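Quick one: co-fold with pyridoxal-5'-phosphate.
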Amino acid sequence: MIPITKPALDEEEVLAASETILSGWVTQGPRVAQFERAFADYAGARYACAVSNCTAALQLALHAIGVGPGDEVITVSHSFIATANAIVHCGATPIFIDIEPATYNMNPTLLEAAITGRTKAILPVHQIGLPADLKVILEIARRYSLPVIEDAACAIGSQVRIDGKWEMIGQPQGAVACFSFHPRKVITTGEGGMITTNDPELDRQFRLLRQHAMSVSDTKRHSSKHVVFESYLQPAFNCRMTDIQAAIGSVQLGKLPAKLACRRTLAERYDNAFAEISGLETPQIPEWARPNYQSYALRVTDDFSVSRDQLMQQLLDRGISTRRGIMNAHQEPAYRNLHCGALPESELARDSVVLLPLYETLTCEQQDQVIAAVVESAGAPVCLAAATKNVVSH
Ligand SMILES: *Cc1c(COP(=O)(O)O)cnc(C)c1O
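Sure, here it is.
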């Protein structure tokens, strides 16, 4: 069986976790601080605040920016449901706008018309690691003095070119960027998240909100030579990452450049293999974007020999696991009662895209099996000439 993804963890992560366990400090402590520093340096951000997952990261970001009941946050329905949930749990209303069919990301030409007097923030998603059109989104946001919170759950290591300069996602380009370390993402800590910003006041708030708004942190109290009493400044949350997770995260982050190189090579092999097949559309990457290929999205059009669902079944019959395209929150029971306009491109993308297996330990032989199965479903003769450029073994 070839799975859709497989987290790459080895003895190095085991050692980091076991050292932490034996150190006697297992929850948010020195290893969280180290991971935050390394992550901020990698992303080029002034501050990085580790939290329990990306859903919590989004919620803290919205809270810190002051999003609350009666406010509207403009985002996409075409995302994992956590994006919409984070907005609703702040008491605000998500305003869904449609995506660009080529990139599956927020269509910035629809953004301005969605802004009202109640709009409090704009929340674009860098879907499956492909950066959203930040240059245009940020220009509009600036004109209306609206903060941009980036759902960068999948986008660690992705880059965007703004005014001729390549920038890392998470720098951040907007006010805040939120990342996930779920095993489905490019680096993992089991569960985990990170919030980056360049604003010291926002970072201070994230640190308070994630730990019950406690005025003195555990680590400060622990190392204090005097008796200190903390106070609790506002009703807040517990969104701490453990030191065990952070130790794993630091190891994973060190491996990120190799992971990215591997994912990009595998994606290119898929691109080459499917380029000439009628009815298949490989990812269209704008010249200003460098994705990390958290997922490989293949669009199956009416010109293909079988439907998207039939292709998924035929692959499953051959022992190859796939997933449908990204979900739409507005099509789920949870958001049935939310009033929103027509989102035809989002709906089409959910129903015509298939995500193929892509992970660093996927061998060329396994990838060739996936390619051969897709080619077979296309009714084309199996010819892998275009794909046989070998990936350096990893
Ligand atoms: C995975 C994901 C999330 C949620 O991340 P968790 O760490 O699981 O909370 C949010 N948004 C997007 C776009 C995601 O892909």
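If it helps, Residues 60 and 288 are 30 Å apart (CA to CA).
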